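Q: Protein A?
A:
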Amino acid sequence: MDVCLSSEQRPGCPGEGLGSPDGWFEAEEKTVQKDGACGPAGDLDNIEPSLQSLQKFVPTDYASYTQEYYLFAGEKIVIQESIESYGAVVWPGATALCQYLEEHTEELNFQDAKILEIGAGPGLVSIVASILGAQVTATDLPDVLGNLQYNLLKNTLKRTAHLPEVKELVWGEGLEQNFPKSTFYYNYVLASDVVYHHYYLDKLLATMVYLCQPGTVLLWANKFRFSTDYEFLDKFKQVFDTTLLAEFPESSVKIFKGTLKWD
């Protein structure tokens, strides 16, 4: 079961006062050693791929962050959030999906599975999937990728079999160029609280369809707030064989399993 243990408000961002992404990485490396969860730094073979991502994705300079603590899959997870961006907050669908993942570990068998998360936000779902053994690609819009990468590294470096990768994904744009079907295949596509009152629902559905190939399972968790959420669900059912896996009445979250319909 998900547990939000506590929160701590603090100003600034992880790179505050640091002149470059390299400096931010050095600060994160020290944090990892101080926390004691990831062991000594210096394993360049493991660090280098993430360092390359860090040099690309720099955190947005929000005025303030909070640190929220979660407990999933037997691990304490620290997530840096900011209420200044929808993409820097853990929403109810994410915690519900994490709860479902940890309660169905044997059934899902994430060990070495290739997983892509749509709209990863601050990264909680991708972190849990990584802890469960998956090879994760976490995607979102450019402005949230720095904070996403920070949270992934803080919670997975030296703690998981596979370091997650971060990639930019704008729904409906550059899909074949950035995620060619001949190269990229995913056992699971994960999405939580990506459906709300915005103007990109058709592009979202097209992206979901594109990323799913024969054998891909899409797990979508969402808090149902508006009539547009149910309208999207109707369209979703037209292209995916859909199963309701779980409901959380206290938070109005539903979790669906979808497999793409094939003619």
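Q: Protein B?
A:
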Amino acid sequence: MAPSKKKHASSQPCIIPGGFTVLSLQFSSDSVAQHQLYVKEHKVRAERSSHRPLDRTLFVLNIPPYCSEGVVKELFSQFGSVQLVELRDHPGSFQESGPKLSSFFKPAEKQGFKVGYIVFQNSSSIKVAKSHPHNVPLVVSTEQRPVRTGVQKWIQTYTESFIQPDNLQQIVDSFMEDYDKRKEEEVEKQKKEAEQQQEDEEGWVKVTRGPKGTKARPHSEVANKKALQKEMRKKKRKELLNFYTWQHRNTQKEHIAELRKKFEEDKQRIALLRAQRKFRPY
């Protein structure tokens, strides 16, 4: 007997407006309630990062809080080999990650529904995931891969929050070694840039940008001296000259004394010149 059209239609993928395909999610095989995931091929023109290739990345909405990155990777591995899973609170461009921090140095993650970016190794996995039947749910917790929730998850999280001092010291030492190494590389880079800089005839200096969060500065002693002299001139200009009457009177007296001194020096110089011009036959 041929299957009915209704049953055949239910085995087809469910596509909603916006181009999203609906995937059913079931916590366990015994659960009655189902959850809906909305997946779509990731296509963003502004996204030029190699971490999210446009032909191999699947965009997923409405991921429940009990699904970690490992769980999501296991769920979608049935469609193909998964290379990377990224869960975020809101959709956005990829953020370059710095040094990998331990959970002790990172704030607690927000609990709630998330969006995900799943990168497959093959582009054909995207088509397989989008063609998954709507009436075949993805099971989260199985005997081989149990997922804890509720009180059991809280107990597990509380137990894992304790750490041995030796392990913590190893994590700190590893982080500090990586930090010192990155700082040394930045210092070496700045030294090489400073050696390559040369001043032109007018004293102009090439200014380079330093590490993130610092202001650009010229790497030259001459430029530093000029900057210091400029600051001194600005400071002198700000001082109030001849503001009071006694300051004006003293300035005039000093000016008259300077003129008299110069006058006497000029008289002596003229007398010396006249003496040198005198005729002396013997």
